[in-house]
Design goal:
By secondary structure, the chain is an alpha/beta fold. It is built from 14 helices and 18 strands. It has an eight-stranded mixed β-sheet with strand order 5-4-13-14-15-12-17-16. A five-stranded parallel β-sheet has the order 7-2-1-11-18, sandwiched between helices. It is globular and about 65 Å long. The protein binds flavin-adenine dinucleotide. The site of flavin-adenine dinucleotide has 32 residues, from helix 1, strand 2, strand 3, strand 8 and helix 10.
Length: 397
């Protein structure tokens, strides 16, 4: 197939793979360059709200999701210090009925496998592992991508380059400068625990959210309830200088336990039971005014990295991919199609980035604001709590 139909994607994460599917299904040839030598599945969960699950169903991944994902019964919000239930919102059944697609939870590695299997079935998608996009040069009718593999540089002439290369995107840096992500001064501690080692309130089929001053904790079951995903987020100035870029930096469980020593006994017991913990320094960036130039654009975290407090970073990458696929296959001039894609995505993703920052403040209030927050939550029905996000969940890419 000619270079006029070939699109290069930097990055084979959730965003890169789903974009590859969207473009191939639209009749393009796709080359995905992934820096990692092999996909190393990391142990963590991901929540996919209806705006994202809808896209995966549209790509025919429903059958695979039915095996790998599950619908939690509800979201239960509790006060960290005394385990008092503040709110309970319905998810299972309700989300599908209200928004036309379910709220799903699954293991990230399983989602990645589903996407990889789907891309392997497309003859027009090639994934080159161990190959990093190092640079690019724009031409009137396309772009030359410079890749690096085993210290060997290679040039590839393609119609467009999509930077889906994550928080520290090289494609973004080449276009807009190499500024560092904005540290959130929060550390996410992460663990997976066998469900049979936990008390029932943690092993139940719910998303649990515990709120406290300068910390919160989220848990939900994965893989048929056999394992529980736990993420504890704490305020931390140390991470402002920490540039770790992996999911798997080992953490010290005693340090984590110290941060939750004034919390309810259930939470302390939960932390005690964690086999091991890893940590991740949270960071985002301010919304960009422009995402691309000529035949180059950005997608997913490369375009709009956000704090995880709305559980939407992956969802936004999935939405981006659907919109990109719709814009790029219509036979329009590539640069025109990419600018259209950016216009369709910029406002919404910026809103989610800002809302995630706002949730950061709300989750971590101290008194008296925390007491006010708890009162407001308690007074609102769970359904109303969900419906505040109609604008988010209702979206059809
Ligand atoms: C604690 C936490 C919890 C979260 N929970 C959720 C959730 O519940 N729901 C949700 O929707 N989102 C969640 N997110 C956000 C979500 O994980 C990200 O938004 C999502 O993974 C972004 O996908 P991506 O493909 O854009 O980037 P990435 O997943 O970062 O993938 C980028 C890929 O590009 C590769 N790469 C990097 N540079 C290059 C290069 N130069 N050339 C080639 N390849 C390159 C990398 O190796 C990587 O494979 C959470 C995030 C965190 C931190």
């Amino acid at each position: 197939m000619s270079e006029r139909r070939t699109i290069a994607i930097a990055g084979g994460g959730i965003g890169g793979l789903i974009a590859a599917l969207a473009l191939a299904r639209g009749g393009m040839r796709v080359l995905v360059y992934e820096r990692a030598a092999r996909f190393a599945p990391f142990g963590a969960g991901i929540q996919l709200s209806p705006n994202a699950s809808r896209v995966l169903y549209a790509f025919g991944l429903g059958k695979a999701l039915a095996t790998a994902a599950s619908e939690p019964e509800g979201l239960i919000v509790r006060r960290g210090r005394d385990a008092q239930e503040l709110a309970r919102a319905p998810l299972k059944g309700f989300m599908g009925q209200r928004y036309g697609a379910p709220y799903l939870i699954l293991h990230r590695a399983d989602l990645h496998t589903i996407l990889r299997v789907a891309t392997e079935k497309e003859i027009d998608i090639d994934i080159e592992m161990g190959t990093a996009v190092a640079d690019f040069a724009l031409h009137k009718n396309g772009v030359t991508v410079l890749t690096e593999r085993d210290h060997q540089l290679e040039e590839h002439r393609v119609a467009a380059l999509i930077g889906a290369d994550g928080l520290r995107s090289t494609v973004r840096a080449r276009m807009f400068g190499n500024d560092q992500p904005r540290p959130a001064e929060r550390t996410a501690w992460r663990a997976l625990v066998p469900a049979d080692q936990l008390p029932p309130e943690f092993a139940a089929n719910n998303v649990g959210l515990w709120l406290g001053h300068d910390a919160h904790l989220v848990h939900y079951p994965l893989r048929g309830g056999s394992v529980i995903n736990v993420v504890a987020v704490v305020a931390d100035a140390w991470q402002a200088t920490w540039t770790g870029d992996g999911w798997n930096s080992p953490g010290d469980k005693d340090e984590l336990a110290g941060r939750f020593s004034a919390w309810a006994p259930q939470v302390r017991d939960l932390i005690d039971s964690l086999p091991s913990v890893t940590r991740w320094a949270l960071a985002d960036r301010k919304p960009l005014r422009r995402w691309g130039e000529g035949a180059v654009t950005l997608l997913g975290d490369a375009a709009h990295p956000m704090l995880p407090f709305l559980a939407q970073g992956g969802g936004m990458a999935i939405e981006d991919a659907m919109t990109l696929g719709r814009c790029l296959v219509r036979g329009e001039d590539v640069a025109v199609a990419l600018r259209k894609y950016e216009r369709l995505r910029r406002y919404r993703t910026a809103r989610v980035q800002r809302e995630a920052r706002r949730m950061d403040r709300i989750y971590h209030y101290s008194n008296p604001m925390a007491a006010l927050r708890d009162m407001v939550m308690g007074a609102r029905s769970g359904q109303k709590m969900i419906e505040r996000y109609n604008w988010l969940y209702r979206h059809k890419s």
